[in-house]
Each structure stands twice: as structure tokens, then as C-alpha cells.
């Protein structure tokens, strides 16, 4: 384990997955808060929207692996496309959040989740192809564990920023009054 932790590649993969898992979890969790506080959606409606994100993520994770192996030269290239797709989805959601109807947002949230879905598994496959075999067990175990910590750290930081800074939900609430 100590040998694998000396590898810079393991830390790059671990940090990438920490940011990914944190972003995925933060968006899925804070989506309900955003929709209720800013868009004034009912809790039930907001939770349906969050469910569409997680359904898209699950669908993407189950199906886009086949697309990756068939249409991409390698998993790293596929991951770059999926990250760009996800970032575009988040940006489109942000741009349309105040302009569009909730039906369009449902589709955007689902499609964003679809792009987010395969990032974790394709990152692990890429790590297995790039890392030396001696790092596979301990290294990938650490990458997954460290990556999973993002699911706790990033949503907490997002909440802290949203609750205490002028960049958070308070600024959006002031703009909408």
C-alpha cells in the first residue's frame, strides 16, 4: 500500500474521482434544495427531478459502457467526452434554471445524469490499463476509497458556501426578490 501511495498517478486518479463523486453527490443532493428555495417547486416535484438525475446516472452507467467499448478508441478519450457532456449539462441546467419550464429541466437533468454515469467505471478501467499490475489491488482500492470521500467533503463545502457566502443561495434569493 505504501508503495502505491508514492505513485503520482494514483493520486491523480484519486483526486479526479474525489471531485467527480463529490460533484455528482452535491448536484443530486443540492438539486432539491435549489428547486425548492429558488424555483419554488414543491418537495415532491423537486424530488422527482432529483430522481431523474439519479435515473439518468444509473442508465448511463449501465448502457454507456457498451458504447465506450464500441465507439471510442480508449476509455480515457471516452471519459473526456463524458466529462465534457456532464459539464455542458450542468451549464445548460444553470442557464435554463430561471428561463425554462420544469419539463425541459427534467430532460436536461436526466441527460446530465446520463453523461455523468459512466465516468466512475471508465476511470477505474483507465487506471487499470495505465497503472502497473503491482498497484492494481491496493492502488485501485485507494482510488475508490479516496474518491468516495468526495461524496462527503464536496457536498459539505457546497452547503457551507451556499449558506454563508455571497456566492451561495442567498445571492440568488436576493436577485429573485
TrEMBL record:
Every copy of the Major facilitator superfamily (MFS) profile domain together lies at: 1-177
- Do the record's keywords include Membrane? yes
Kindly list the GO CC terms recorded for this protein: endomembrane system; membrane
State a single Gene Ontology molecular function: transmembrane transporter activity
State if Coiled coil is listed as a keyword.
Answer: no
Keywords for the protein's UniProt record, in alphabetical order = Membrane, Transmembrane, Transmembrane helix, Transport
InterPro entries, per the entry: MFS_dom, MFS_trans_sf, MFS_Transporter
What residue ranges are annotated as transmembrane?
9-33, 45-64, 76-97, 103-128, 140-162
- State where the protein is found: Endomembrane system
Q: What is its main location?
A: membrane
Q: How does it sit in the membrane?
A: Multi-pass membrane protein
- Member of which family? Belongs to the major facilitator superfamily.
- For this entry, the protein name equals Major facilitator superfamily (MFS) profile domain-containing protein
Which organism is this entry from? Cerrena zonata
Amino acid at each position: 500500500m505504501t508503495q502505491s501511495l508514492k505513485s503520482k498517478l494514483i493520486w491523480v486518479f484519486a483526486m479526479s474521482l474525489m471531485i467527480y463523486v463529490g460533484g455528482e453527490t452535491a448536484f443530486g443532493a443540492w438539486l432539491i434544495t435549489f428547486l425548492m428555495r429558488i424555483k419554488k417547486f414543491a418537495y415532491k416535484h423537486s424530488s422527482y427531478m432529483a430522481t431523474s438525475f439519479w435515473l439518468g446516472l444509473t442508465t448511463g452507467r449501465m448502457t454507456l459502457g457498451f458504447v465506450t467499448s464500441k465507439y471510442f478508441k480508449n476509455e480515457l478519450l471516452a471519459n473526456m467526452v463524458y466529462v465534457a457532456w456532464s459539464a455542458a449539462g450542468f451549464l445548460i441546467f444553470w442557464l435554463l434554471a430561471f428561463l425554462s419550464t420544469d419539463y425541459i429541466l427534467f430532460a436536461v437533468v436526466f441527460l446530465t445524469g446520463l453523461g455523468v454515469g459512466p465516468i466512475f467505471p471508465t476511470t477505474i478501467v483507465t487506471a487499470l490499463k495505465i497503472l502497473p499490475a503491482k498497484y492494481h489491488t491496493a492502488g485501485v482500492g485507494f482510488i475508490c476509497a479516496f474518491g468516495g470521500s468526495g461524496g462527503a467533503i464536496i457536498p459539505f463545502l457546497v452547503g457551507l458556501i451556499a449558506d454563508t457566502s455571497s456566492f451561495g443561495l442567498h445571492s440568488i434569493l436576493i436577485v429573485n426578490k
